[in-house]
Write a structure and sequence with these properties.
Elements lengths: L2 H23 L4 E5 L2 E4 L9 H13 L2 H18 L9 H16 L2 H15 L2 E2 L4 E2 L14 E3 L6 H11 L3 H16 L10 E4 L6 E5 L11 H18 L2 H16 L23 H17 L4 H19 L14 E4 L4 E5 L2 H15 L7
Antiparallel strand pairs: 1-2, 3-4, 5-6, 6-7, 8-9
Bound molecules: glycine.
């Protein structure tokens, strides 16, 4: 089947399924699907932006008013958590980019712009100038000290800051984004192109203390979703700044990722596992990396450009052909995601971020170029 054929076929099926699941999921915040049905989270959970973001991807193509209304309702529900300060961490980028920034870019809503700028200010407020990093999390348990924690996922939150600088003309947002990205290039990206999930700094002196395993097997393994966040996030940082070191780092991580893919092009949850450890796939890592590779392909020339483009397509095509279920009542689009292997949470489930990036990737292959990020 030609690329155009399978992409159109997949898109049609996605549209049909979302028409159904938009009625059962509604204006809510799904995370992982269990026994065919999405488990909903509170709006302050980091995944809150993906369902409305997916709805905006659909709306851009169909102009279906009921889809638009659901995405807007989700965005309005996020207002309730903006003041719940303690519950918000660095994932404000994921949350408000795919709701308010997406709506602003598509429809020019001034309310959305205001919401996204407030979120950008809150995100900027998490910057630790001693160590030049954006603090990831708040304490999750009484007395826990997360003040020195930075994680690779934050690379995807930085787009909100670049957008805020572009919209306001105020360079502070992008300057903080760049400082965080520099820290990631220096402290997270390893010589072989793998990345750490977590690096802990001394929040007073700014010195690096240690790398930590986080959602990967260990500090020196290679959590595939973290590597995927790095490919896309570093490429986006290059997109916004033109800074070559981000492009070089993105390429290095992309080569590591591509060279560790199994035969069906969809990654195991971690690329560097010792013998005896289970290695379920993480389809979400594949979808995220595919979107990153498609953008990366546009930033480089031959011979790398066709390689990245082909790999992005191959991952998406394999997800479509081998990781979907169009016949049952399953709500998820992409099967076999791994949310958190070390905590044994949602292994072999559809995950809403896998679904979102699958749809974003298809939209890109269909020719929609404007990024929500
Ligand atoms: N940002 C958390 C994750 O990727 O699971």
């Amino acid at each position: 089947m030609s690329e155009q054929q399978w992409v159109n076929e997949a898109w049609e099926k996605v549209m049909k399924k979302i028409e159904r699941t938009s009625k059962s999921i509604g204006a809510n915040f799904p995370h992982a699907s269990e026994n065919g049905k999405y488990v909903l989270e509170e709006p302050y959970w980091w995944t809150a932006g993906f369902w409305p973001g997916l709805l905006w991807q659909v709306y851009r193509d169909t102009k279906d008013e009921s889809i638009k209304q659901l995405a807007e309702e989700c965005e309005e529900k996020l207002d309730s958590v903006r003041n719940a300060f303690y519950k918000l961490d660095h994932d404000m980028g994921f949350m408000w980019t795919l709701t308010s920034v997406a709506r602003f870019k598509l429809l020019g809503s001034e309310d959305s712009k205001r919401r996204a700028l407030i979120a950008a200010n809150l995100l900027m407020g998490r910057f630790n100038a001693n160590g030049s990093f954006i603090r990831a999390w708040n304490p999750w348990t009484e007395g826990e000290d997360n003040s020195g924690i930075a994680i690779i996922d934050c690379m995807m939150n930085l787009s909100l800051l670049y957008w805020a600088s572009e919209e306001t003309g105020d360079p502070r947002y992008k300057s903080i984004a760049r400082k965080h990205a520099d820290t990631v290039v220096n402290e997270f990206v390893r010589d072989d192109g793998a990345v750490h999930h977590i690096v802990r700094f001394n929040p007073e002196s700014g010195e690096r203390v240690e790398a930590m395993g986080g959602q990967g097997y260990g500090p020196d393994s290679a959590w595939s979703r973290g590597n995927a966040w790095a490919i896309y996030g570093l490429t986006l940082n290059y997109h916004y700044t033109g800074e070559v070191k981000y492009l070089e780092a993105a390429k290095k991580v992309a080569h590591f990722f591509i060279s560790h893919l199994p035969e069906d092009f969809v990654p195991d949850w971690d690329f560097l596992l010792p013998k005896g450890v289970d290695f379920p796939r993480d389809s979400s890592a594949g979808a995220i990396a595919a979107c990153g590779l498609l953008l990366l392909a546009e930033k480089v020339s031959v011979p790398e450009s066709p390689l990245y483009r082909r790999m992005g397509e191959k991952i998406l095509q394999s997800l479509y052909e081998n990781y979907t279920d169009w016949d049952s009542m399953e709500e998820g689009l992409i099967l076999h995601g791994t949310s958190h292997f070390p905590e044994q949470k949602y292994i072999d489930n559809p995950l809403i971020y896998g679904d979102y990036f699958f749809v974003e990737g298809l939209a890109r292959l269909k020719g929609y170029q404007e990024l929500f990020w």
